[in-house]
Amino acid sequence: MPLTRREIVDLIPHGESMCMLDEVVSWDSERIHCRSTDFARASNPLFEKDQLHSVMLIEYAAQAAAVHAALLHSKLGESRPAYLGAVKSVELLESAVDNNTPIDIDAQCLLNSSSGAIYEVLAQQGQQPVMRGRLVLNQPQV
Asked: Could you tell me which residues are beta bridge partners of residue 125?
Protein backbone atom coordinates (compact mmCIF):
# COMPACT_ATOMS: atom_id res chain seq x y z
CA MET A 1 0.00 0.00 0.00
CA PRO A 2 1.77 3.21 -1.17
CA LEU A 3 1.90 6.29 1.04
CA THR A 4 2.46 9.93 0.09
CA ARG A 5 4.92 12.36 1.67
CA ARG A 6 2.04 13.96 3.61
CA GLU A 7 1.10 10.58 5.11
CA ILE A 8 4.76 9.91 5.98
CA VAL A 9 5.06 13.28 7.76
CA ASP A 10 2.06 12.30 9.88
CA LEU A 11 3.75 9.05 10.95
CA ILE A 12 7.13 10.36 12.12
CA PRO A 13 8.00 13.24 14.46
CA HIS A 14 10.51 14.89 12.08
CA GLY A 15 8.23 17.60 10.73
CA GLU A 16 7.79 18.64 7.13
CA SER A 17 11.23 20.18 6.53
CA MET A 18 13.17 17.24 8.00
CA CYS A 19 11.17 14.47 6.32
CA MET A 20 13.53 13.02 3.72
CA LEU A 21 11.14 10.51 2.16
CA ASP A 22 8.72 11.38 -0.65
CA GLU A 23 6.82 8.10 -0.82
CA VAL A 24 6.43 4.61 0.56
CA VAL A 25 6.38 2.42 -2.54
CA SER A 26 5.43 -0.76 -0.68
CA TRP A 27 5.55 -2.37 2.74
CA ASP A 28 4.54 -5.49 4.61
CA SER A 29 5.17 -6.90 8.08
CA GLU A 30 8.89 -7.53 7.37
CA ARG A 31 10.07 -4.78 5.04
CA ILE A 32 9.50 -1.35 3.58
CA HIS A 33 10.56 0.23 0.29
CA CYS A 34 10.68 4.05 0.27
CA ARG A 35 11.76 6.59 -2.32
CA SER A 36 13.18 10.10 -2.21
CA THR A 37 12.83 12.07 -5.42
CA ASP A 38 13.15 15.66 -4.20
CA PHE A 39 16.34 15.41 -2.13
CA ALA A 40 18.24 18.04 -4.17
CA ARG A 41 15.86 20.81 -3.08
CA ALA A 42 17.48 23.88 -1.54
CA SER A 43 15.43 23.48 1.65
CA ASN A 44 16.86 20.01 2.39
CA PRO A 45 19.06 20.56 5.48
CA LEU A 46 21.24 17.54 4.52
CA PHE A 47 21.92 18.75 0.95
CA GLU A 48 25.15 20.72 1.13
CA LYS A 49 27.26 22.41 -1.56
CA ASP A 50 25.04 21.05 -4.34
CA GLN A 51 25.35 17.45 -3.21
CA LEU A 52 24.06 14.84 -0.82
CA HIS A 53 26.92 12.91 0.76
CA SER A 54 26.20 9.20 0.99
CA VAL A 55 26.70 9.21 4.78
CA MET A 56 23.48 11.25 4.98
CA LEU A 57 21.61 8.23 3.65
CA ILE A 58 21.80 6.80 7.15
CA GLU A 59 19.14 9.37 8.10
CA TYR A 60 17.03 8.39 5.09
CA ALA A 61 17.27 4.72 6.07
CA ALA A 62 16.48 5.52 9.72
CA GLN A 63 13.36 7.38 8.61
CA ALA A 64 12.30 4.42 6.44
CA ALA A 65 12.72 2.09 9.42
CA ALA A 66 10.83 4.52 11.69
CA VAL A 67 7.97 4.71 9.18
CA HIS A 68 7.87 0.91 9.07
CA ALA A 69 7.82 0.68 12.87
CA ALA A 70 5.03 3.28 13.00
CA LEU A 71 3.00 1.40 10.38
CA LEU A 72 3.41 -1.88 12.27
CA HIS A 73 2.36 -0.36 15.57
CA SER A 74 -0.47 1.70 14.07
CA LYS A 75 -2.03 -1.55 12.90
CA LEU A 76 -2.00 -2.61 16.55
CA GLY A 77 -3.71 0.60 17.65
CA GLU A 78 -0.55 1.85 19.33
CA SER A 79 1.59 4.81 18.30
CA ARG A 80 5.03 5.42 19.84
CA PRO A 81 8.06 7.23 18.45
CA ALA A 82 11.14 5.21 17.50
CA TYR A 83 14.66 6.57 18.05
CA LEU A 84 17.88 5.58 16.36
CA GLY A 85 19.81 3.63 18.98
CA ALA A 86 22.79 2.40 16.96
CA VAL A 87 24.24 2.24 13.46
CA LYS A 88 26.27 -0.85 12.60
CA SER A 89 28.27 -2.30 9.70
CA VAL A 90 27.69 0.71 7.44
CA GLU A 91 29.25 0.59 3.98
CA LEU A 92 29.37 3.77 1.91
CA LEU A 93 29.72 2.54 -1.67
CA GLU A 94 29.73 6.01 -3.27
CA SER A 95 30.88 9.32 -1.81
CA ALA A 96 27.75 11.20 -2.90
CA VAL A 97 24.50 10.53 -4.70
CA ASP A 98 23.59 11.48 -8.27
CA ASN A 99 21.30 14.51 -8.00
CA ASN A 100 19.21 13.42 -10.99
CA THR A 101 18.29 9.88 -9.92
CA PRO A 102 15.73 8.98 -7.22
CA ILE A 103 17.03 7.25 -4.10
CA ASP A 104 15.36 3.96 -3.18
CA ILE A 105 15.62 2.84 0.43
CA ASP A 106 14.85 -0.73 1.44
CA ALA A 107 14.67 -1.67 5.11
CA GLN A 108 14.12 -5.24 6.25
CA CYS A 109 13.13 -5.84 9.86
CA LEU A 110 15.36 -8.60 11.28
CA LEU A 111 14.10 -8.41 14.86
CA ASN A 112 11.08 -6.63 16.29
CA SER A 113 10.12 -6.46 19.95
CA SER A 114 8.06 -4.21 22.17
CA SER A 115 11.16 -2.11 22.93
CA GLY A 116 12.63 -1.71 19.45
CA ALA A 117 13.82 -3.32 16.24
CA ILE A 118 16.87 -4.14 14.13
CA TYR A 119 16.80 -3.32 10.41
CA GLU A 120 19.06 -4.26 7.51
CA VAL A 121 19.04 -1.25 5.16
CA LEU A 122 20.07 -0.57 1.58
CA ALA A 123 20.00 2.73 -0.30
CA GLN A 124 20.47 2.64 -4.03
CA GLN A 125 20.00 4.68 -7.17
CA GLY A 126 18.74 2.61 -10.06
CA GLN A 127 20.51 -0.70 -9.55
CA GLN A 128 23.60 0.96 -8.00
CA PRO A 129 23.98 0.42 -4.23
CA VAL A 130 25.12 3.60 -2.47
CA MET A 131 24.90 2.72 1.25
CA ARG A 132 24.06 -0.36 3.31
CA GLY A 133 24.17 -1.28 6.95
CA ARG A 134 22.15 -2.12 10.07
CA LEU A 135 20.14 0.17 12.29
CA VAL A 136 18.88 -0.44 15.80
CA LEU A 137 15.69 1.41 16.70
CA ASN A 138 14.77 2.02 20.31
CA GLN A 139 11.04 2.27 20.91
CA PRO A 140 10.55 2.88 24.61
CA GLN A 141 7.25 2.23 26.37
CA VAL A 142 5.33 5.42 27.04
From this structure: 128
Q: Are 55 and 130 in contact (CB under 8 A)?
A: no
Indicate the burial class of 52 (C-beta count within 10 angstroms; 0-12, 13-18, 19 or more). Answer: buried
Using alpha carbons only, what angle is made at residue 101 by residues 99 and 105, rounded to the nearest 5 degrees? Answer: 105
Per residue in 30-47, pLDDT (tens digit) is 999 999 998 888 788 888
CA dist 72 and 76 (Å) reads 7
Could you tell me how many residues make up the chain? 142
In angstroms, the CA 63 to CA 77 distance is 20
Q: Is the pLDDT of residue 80 over 70?
A: no
CA-to-CA distance for 55 and 139, rounded, in angstroms?
A: 24
> Quick one: residue 50, left, alpha or beta (phi over 0 = left, psi -120 to 50 = alpha)?
left
Distance separating alpha carbons of residues 8 and 3, to the nearest angstrom: 7
Residues 6 or more apart whose CB falls under 8 angstroms from that of 22 comprise 5, 8, 35, 36, 37, 38
